[in-house]
Amino acid sequence: MAAREAGHAIIAGVDEVGRGPLAGPVVAACVVLPETFSTDGINDSKKLTEKRREKAYDRILAEALAVGVGIVPREMIDQINILHATHLAMSKAVRNLPQEWAPDIVLIDGLPVHGIPCAHQKAIVGGDGLSVSIAAASILAKVTRDRMMAAYDKKYPEYGFAKHKGYGSAVHMAALREHGACPIHRRSFAPVAAAPRSNRYGDQS
Question: Membrane-spanning residues where (predicted)?
């Protein structure tokens, strides 16, 4: 690993999920793995089945040296925009690591992130397929957010959040047109802004 060869002892991987959906939070995770961590079953979360993600999630939590999660709700997304909300979630994830595991370097999927609380960061395009710590972070973030959306599905059953996780599927768009926006819909996203304002949950503007 290039970061370890460069002299960095505590290396953290960071990734996020939930940038594209029309509803729900954006979630990021930060993971510090032991050098002996096996890559078996670990990959970009989007390339794993739900069953394999859940299995990998449990193993990462059991074997990781440290884990931090950052969650930014839809209200903040609407206030500061999705890009800034994503960066905030990633910064929160790093800050939420135990203090004794503050990283020497943070490996980030994609482009550099402003505000990461670490002296060194390395942005890796396609990092969730190249770095095991970033892949582990992507799995933790994905499973965490999916479970949140499944819980929201019970609270707002009209929309089918457990299936599409808030993304703009045909089923979701039809429900949005029929029922209007519920409290977790992102008002700053165009399809939501165009939806009816009044529904059984009241005007949630």
Answer: none
